Amino acid sequence: MSTQSHAEHVNVDHDEIAKFEQLASKWWDRNSEFKPLHDINPLRVGFIDQIARLVDKQVLDVGCGGGILSESMAQRGATVMGIDMGEAPLKVAKLHGLESGVQVNYKQIPVEELAAQQPESFDVVTCMEMLEHVPDPSSIVRACAQLVKPGGYVFFSTLNRNPKAYLFAIMGAEQILKLVPKGTHDFQKFIRPSELGNWIRKSGLQSLEMTGLVYNPLTKAYRLNPKDVDVNYMIATRKPAE
């Protein structure tokens, strides 16, 4: 297979990559378009750490972007590799790592390619806010399952697809509250928990726990609520031990 034809078959939406490339310089600005990511990060890393105990674990962060979650997991004592297909966000992540002194190994590589190279290499795999930005999310789920060791944990977060999610994530977050730039999300790519659950089962993972990330526009604060997965939600899964 030629390099060109291989590139065409990589599970990447180049328009999505370009969108995040343009915003790369703002990734660590807590008052920029990435403020919501900074706001939910303590909740995400707390959820992951509570279930998987990050200290001394080998962790892979799939779709790491500018490294917000990657650095937080490294600060909790994990050895972290972050992968992304966006060159600019990875440069920002590496630069911020030099400034913060937090060590993360960043690579520009498709997750499917890494799964072929390093199967069952990680204790924990995280894939946050990425599945709704790729052409074939089920392929990402399969690759994450391949990459985790037996007995290890895989975490996914994405957006539910229903009228409430459209109202909150598109109308509310993008157009009214302007929490994120217009066009950040494509409602058709949102994923119902039943769909994600099906891919998880087919990839050989077991679902452990699901929780919602709920935003209160009055307090401007996020909290976890397992009873409300209507908009943003996270799923913890485990690969059965052999």
UniProtKB/TrEMBL annotation:
EC number(s) given by UniProt: 2.1.1.222, 2.1.1.64
Function (record text): O-methyltransferase that catalyzes the 2 O-methylation steps in the ubiquinone biosynthetic pathway.
Protein family: Belongs to the methyltransferase superfamily. UbiG/COQ3 family.
Catalytic activity, as annotated: a 3-demethylubiquinol + S-adenosyl-L-methionine = a ubiquinol + S-adenosyl-L-homocysteine + H(+); a 3-(all-trans-polyprenyl)benzene-1,2-diol + S-adenosyl-L-methionine = a 2-methoxy-6-(all-trans-polyprenyl)phenol + S-adenosyl-L-homocysteine + H(+)
Protein name (record): Ubiquinone biosynthesis O-methyltransferase
Superkingdom: Bacteria
Binding site for S-adenosyl-L-methionine: 44, 63, 84, 128
